[in-house]
Task: structure prediction
Amino acid sequence: MEGKSIIRVKDLKKNFGDLQVLKGISTEFEAKKVVSIIGPSGGGKSTFLRCLNLLEMPSSGHIYFNNVDICSKNVDINVQRQKIGMVFQHFNLFNNMNVIKNLTVAPVKIKGMTQDEAMEKALELLKRLGLDDKADSFPSQLSGGQKQRIAILRSLMMDPEVMLFDEPTSALDPEMIGEVLDVMKDLAESGMTMIIVTHEMRFAREVSDRVLFLDGGLIDEDRSASDFFNDPHSPRLISFLNKVL
Result:
């Protein structure tokens, strides 16, 4: 694999009681590349993504972020998480705070930005997305698409090296999906390293450098986006694509 690997995963396993959800995953993610993870429900996609910043603690195996094994007990995971942005399915905005407060609270408290610096950066990002008129709005006053775009901006406020997206459009009405995917396309074009669990096959095909097919807790196929969709090898993947394309 060419280029610099920003995340390396070695023999990652995750059990929930007697249920083994991840059965030994080994892969790498290059800096400035976009990787989509697709597969059937229950195949382990979201669990795998959440393990990458230890929102789920792996049962065994190793995850190296910039050559640091973040599974090691000697590593301060909170320091590492500052560099790994996460965008969830259900926004996770603070409902008691307006948009500008949602965007500035973490950079001020965690990164040590001054309030003025955080405010300037937040307004600049909002303007870039055409949401500067929503700075004083509360989450309850926003559409689903606006909430998800704010959630993406909240991650960007921390200057992450990697962005993880866990099915970021699955909770949205169909007409709002496009506005969120457009933001993600812009991020991809800007060189952001992105790992995306998604059901949006067209988006995965257009934007991804690589696509992983995760099924039964294992990577069943891992290829460039064009090869993945145009010349799938695995019978399980062929069957899956026939159903969703």
